[in-house]
Amino acid sequence: MRNFKRFAILGGDGVFGIHMTKYLLENNSLERLICIGRNPKKPEVYSLGVGNNDFRYKYYQAHMLHEPDIIMRIFDQEKPECIINFAALAYATSWTDSYRYYDTNVMALAKITELIRDKDYFKHWMQIGSSEVYGPAVKGPSKETDAPNPTSPYAVSKLAGDLHLKTYFDSIQFPMNIIRPSNAYAPGQQLYRVMPRAAYCALKGIAFPLEGGGIAEKSFLHARDMADAIYKIITEAPLGEIYNAGTESSTSIRNIVKMIAKASNVEFDAIAKITEGRTTEDFRYWLDNSKITRDLSWEPKVSLNEGVIEMVTWAKKYINELEHMNQVYELRS
């Protein structure tokens, strides 16, 4: 059992870093939590006000790829025992400027882990991996022992990062674990993702582009459940282990949009606009949870229906702010 009191979150300005921050700040034994992101701290619609007026929390703006020296100065000042790495370029259409995915997801990771490994305050690296390293779950949910089958530059870059850390652990006992979560979601997520965009479109009465009719399937995990799984791995898992964390079943994007339409009191056909599908999209992502359930007694608690209602409630609360937010993904290094 490991009991850390000082944490750092890389990618701390993203939605999953925000919900991890909220989870950790609810832990009374926490002494210090710093979040580092490449952007200035986001407005409340995305930050949810998490960490405001909490003396244990501080946000720093620094770029993991371009400013590793600044990040290390922050680490030396704050002395985090455990570093949770959410920082990554993560988008399905990674075929354009694919080198940028390797820059962030492999090169930046290699730089920071090499710089941190000999610091006396550092005790544990928690890496947020991706279910996409397994490729499409054609024969049932993917297990940690399945052969990797990445089908995009993004997935290849995430697998390469995992292999780098595994080599570090095997060779020099670098203290790390990896989680490969299902497609996570939560209030505060950017509008180019399926759930928040569908909620916004439903509430505004505008068309939601349902690519390929929405037949692709994913398993959707609430960020609160993901944070719980991460914390269990950090505190209880044997070092070097990789764990999946997902839901019992997968569901189609079409069904997700139907659920959001229902929660928004609009007709599905009134907002869904069928568009051409992506030729490179995998049919299904779905994970086997048996290892993390057996070893750490973890299982998701937030039902998909609860999560959808929560997402619509968030979008309704911040609908005026969301009108001014970008709905299209912008690739930046």
Question: Can you describe what's shown?
Answer:
The protein is of the alpha/beta class and 333 residues long. It has twelve helices and 14 strands. The chain has helices spanning 15-25, 44-47, 68-78, 99-116, 153-172, 194-204, 223-236, 253-263, 268-271, 290-296, 304-317, 319-322; strands spanning 6-10, 32-37, 57-61, 82-85, 124-128, 176-181, 183-185, 208-211, 217-218, 220-222, 242-245, 251-252, 272-275, 284-285. It is globular, with a radius of gyration of 19 Å. The two termini are 37 Å apart. The model has no long low-confidence stretch (mean pLDDT 93).
Low-confidence stretches: none
Strand content: 15-25%
Q: What is the rounded distance between the termini?
A: 37 Å
Main sheet attributes: strand count, strand direction, barrel closure? 7 strands, parallel
For the biggest β-sheet, the strand order reads 3-2-1-4-5-6-11
CATH topology of the largest domain: Rossmann fold
Question: In terms of structural class, how would the helical and strand content be classed?
Answer: alpha/beta
Shape: globular
Q: Kindly provide the radius of gyration, computed on alpha-carbon positions and rounded to a whole number of angstroms.
A: 19 Å
- CATH H-level homologous superfamily name of the largest domain: NAD(P)-binding Rossmann-like Domain
Helix content: 25-40%
How do the SSEs run, as a string of H and E? EHEHEHEHEHEEHEEEHEEHHEEHHH
The tally of helices reads 12
CATH architecture level-2 label of the largest domain: 3-Layer(aba) Sandwich
Number of domain units: 2
Number of strands: 14
The first-level CATH class of the largest domain is given as Alpha Beta
